[in-house]
Amino acid sequence: MKQKVVIIGGGAAGPKIAAKLLRTKDFDCTIDLYTDENIISYSACGLPYYIEGIIPDSEKLIVRRPQQFEEQGANIHLNQKCIKIIPDEHRIIVQDTKTKETKEVQYDKLAITTGARPIIPSIENIELKNIFTVRTIQDGINIRKQMLNSKKAVILGGGYIGIELLEAFYSNNVHTVMIERQNNILSIFDPEISSMIAQQITDMGEGRIEIITADAITAFEGNEKVERVITKNGRVIETDMVVVAAGIRPNTEIAADAGIELGVSNAIRINNRMQTSKKDIYAAGDCTENFHLVSRNYTWIPLGSTANKQGRCAAINISGKYDAFPGVLGSAVTRFSKLSISLTGLSETEAKKFGFDVITSTMTKKDKAGYMPNAEDITLKLVVDRRLKKILGAQAFGGGDADKRVNTVASAILAQQTLDEFLHLDMTYAPPFSTAVDPLLSAALIINNKMYM
Amino acid sequence: MKQKVVIIGGGAAGPKIAAKLLRTKDFDCTIDLYTDENIISYSACGLPYYIEGIIPDSEKLIVRRPQQFEEQGANIHLNQKCIKIIPDEHRIIVQDTKTKETKEVQYDKLAITTGARPIIPSIENIELKNIFTVRTIQDGINIRKQMLNSKKAVILGGGYIGIELLEAFYSNNVHTVMIERQNNILSIFDPEISSMIAQQITDMGEGRIEIITADAITAFEGNEKVERVITKNGRVIETDMVVVAAGIRPNTEIAADAGIELGVSNAIRINNRMQTSKKDIYAAGDCTENFHLVSRNYTWIPLGSTANKQGRCAAINISGKYDAFPGVLGSAVTRFSKLSISLTGLSETEAKKFGFDVITSTMTKKDKAGYMPNAEDITLKLVVDRRLKKILGAQAFGGGDADKRVNTVASAILAQQTLDEFLHLDMTYAPPFSTAVDPLLSAALIINNKMYM
Questions:
Q1: Matching CATH number, B3-50+59-115+249-318, of 3.30.70.260, 1.10.10.10, 3.40.50.300, 3.50.50.60
Q2: Do B415 and A411 make contact, defined as CB atoms within 8 angstroms?
Q3: b or e along A263-291 (b: 16 or more beta carbons within 10 Å of the residue's beta carbon)?
């Protein structure tokens, strides 16, 4: 009998579920995807590069179009917002965002992929013109348009998106001030690493970048349009525009209303198979909680890479087969110009918080043979448990592919490898690609020397 | 009591042993390094980039100079060739390469790091001018000088060094013919991968590169200088110069004469601690055999990265502490222009030879989000054991950091990770660095689909 599969949300995970189900030959189903947007399946991660001008056309950010799905047999319902889930009756209520008409939709299997939305801080006059958030393609178009007419900008928030916008504004000759409430930007990194990154970005900014930490915006001022930003510490910053990138929160209100169990940060709790606490309801992507494979704790780390894996996993289980998604390492990367910034696993701060007996090494070394003209510095920090010798995490910043070293560590962490084993990793070497002893192995050797030499 | 440590050979491993011993504070020793060259510690791997002109000065290839060692207390004896080892008497005989005078040197611990040398095939008229091998800095200087006066060149051998020379000649506008005896260049890769690489290099060569396989040079012709190359299949190739890069062999004759056990390819057999079959004699670097961690067989894979690790390991054990070097994965990388070419572990061909039940996937995907203007194709082949699910090897070629994906697989192979575990690797994602599902994970998913879907 044909199964009715209903998907709520059109970001990364939802379309992934639809695409995977369409490729699943021995599962007979109908697929209906509902989204409150007028578009599906676009790369929000690519918005900073559209704003910067690297991607000339915002249309390029669309991964899959509704008609592609329709042609393959999935039904895409744009501008249809799910306003209620009734688990016991296996149905949802959707509302047309324009006409406000509602209708009921039955499902056999439901997938919640409602994603996340920007946090809008309650700051005086935040409704002024030229204050933006970054989520939709239209946001990107609006920001780029205003940026091209601006000399000065303020970015509220020093996270990944903030850093990427800093690159966009810097390379378009806009003088930009970043304001971060915490003591450091990129506060997921250890403080001394964040400080080094902030210093490098400021140095690379050639006077066009100012990073202010431990301060907060208390008010916007201006006549219709934003003209000034006032901070808690009394700064008055003239600006032509503001982008609010102060974090996101999961869209889980309808799930909570339906009695679906939430976890950390109000994200939906799921098991290994992407099943929620309610029968026949799955969830995937930014709206779900994650199990962290190193800390062994639940956490909320919304990332596009995870959303894709979870979407695939949900689709396989919806189709009656078995697949498990065991958890995350929190691997992530961002960049400012040619500086790549990445991490995996736990920082030293986090590892200590979770009760590990921590030993670390931090070292800076060239990413290629020193005599190659384009050799760049890589700074790497490794975090290891002294007793178990397990590698717990890595942070890296520097020349081009510093992030790829982090992936190599991620592979070791996933395998619960000890430092003693990892030390002997046979990494590729040729002068254009690394040093004879790769920076990653040098960092591992430093810890080895501390422990045994 | 002061230990007399004697090192034979000044390439990578020997100087590494000396450097590590100099940093070892609680080991009282004298260090004497003998080499038959007039230089030590230079990067032979960098020669192609000096020849190409990327490294303007050959002096930059010198990693550590004799006087640096001397200042720190190690004695470097240049132009002193070890001609005999007498293990039972703990002494060696060295000969001055100029005066031919000999002397005896006593040791408490001896390290053999004699490296390898190019194989010179017995081809008619090989003594003609402008026929070169690539080993020393002087070779590099001679090749570059001749290249700058040449319009046509022939490279004998399609291995890593051959490919790197091809880049050097191509970028200096020299029309180059590569001649490889086997059916494929880079014969350590699977044939279909080698073929694709050869095709890409030829295409990138804009008519200046010709790759001939399954043919061999039978004679050189010319008047004093080489002018023509004659092949077994009857080709007559006009040329201004020839570089012979037809493989290397270990310098182990004096070790064999001393009764030290040799292994595969006549390389010196060593244990986990770099100890040879004779008491107090260690060996490290290109002159030693390697244990392959995947095939569980002995092999000879001479690489600078391994030489450095072995040198460190030998030094620690010489100093009375404990360190083990368990073996290699054979990870290696080379490049032609922007095409990086790398592998780790076993190829499909090798894995079958060693009796694994093999399942593979080969896929081509962009290395970055497709909408990024500098996205490049990466082709990846994964080799997995169907029964045990263990990952056995990976081959990759393509845009910039294809090789770094290979290192991430190497880490998984070292940890004996199964494909089922590896599939869940949390890799960093942002549009300038990868796709939301990294090419590496896509390759792993294809095998997963073959097995379970």
A1: 3.50.50.60
A2: yes
A3: bebbbbbbeeebbbbbebbbbbbbbbbbb
